[in-house]
Amino acid sequence: MSRGGKRLGAGRKPVPKELKKEPISIKLPRWLIEWMDTQEESRPKLIEEALRRQYNIFPAGESYDRE
Fold first, then answer.
1. N vs C: which end of the chain shows fewer Cβ within 10 Å?
2. Domain limits at 36?
3. What is the pLDDT of residues 1-15, one digit of tens each?
């Protein structure tokens, strides 16, 4: 019986470099943070979706189909 270690096909698949998320620090007004905290989606998801919609920007090969 296997007890761990490297196994072929095990583990998380790597994310393409252009889709890898990096942490940044930003300052936002308190009211906006409070509003984001009342939403079901996470702060990063809300910010990413807002930027995509506002500036119509998407990773290569992807477009916005939801609404």
1. N
2. 27-58
3. 566 778 888 888 888
Q: Which residue has the tokens 């300052």?
A: 27
Among positive and negative, which fits the CA dihedral 55, 61, 66, 67? positive
What would the two tokens of residue 52 be? 């995509």
| Residue 16 in domain | no
* Half-sphere CA count of 21, side-chain side, radius 13 A: 6
Whether 15 is covered by a domain: the verdict is: no
Residue (of 33, 53, 54, 56) closest to 43 by Cα position: 33
Q: Encoding tokens for residue 65?
A: 């189909």
pTM of the predicted structure, to 2 decimals = 0.69
